[in-house]
Description:
Distance between the termini: 39 Å
Oligomer: single chain
Amino acid sequence: MEEELKQSRDIEANCLKVVLFGPESTGKTTLSRQLARHYNSVWVPEYAREYLQNKWNNERQTCEAKDLLPIAKGQMRLENKLAKKTDTVLICDTDLLETKVYSEAYYLGSCDPILEKYALENTYDLYFLTYIDTPWEADDLRDKPNHRMAMFKAFQDELIRQNRPYVLLKGDKKKRLNEAIKHIDVLLKRRGIEID
């Protein structure tokens, strides 16, 4: 089972891995799509949305602690599959560290030790922490409109605690996109990766 939570080691060495990270309804998916389009690359969707929407549609049940490992496995399956389709930039709508933060926020500070292990071992080049200055959009899965600042702080604290490189993104969609592109371009140039 642990193999399913590891990043694939046959990923192109030059591939830059970027994660959109932060609370629900802060524009991560929108920005992921925009960045993938800008770099003519691929983005890794958030597997939890598909998994939990199916659970809601079929059982009228929300996320439980027992769902987190299947979600983590599905996320890594998607990431490893899509990473093979680019040698430039892989845009990840989320990662296992995000799942760890949610686990601790929702389930009394606990996280499955196996999930935590790979949340800390899997590596990315840059995180974009999305701020809560976007409008809240309700759906079947989102449930903490009144806890946005507390959730944002939990995500930021985790990045700091794990010493992950991150950039805080605020403002409208255009401002966030331009800021993200600026930082990705610097890393691509540093790596000698050419983008058409």
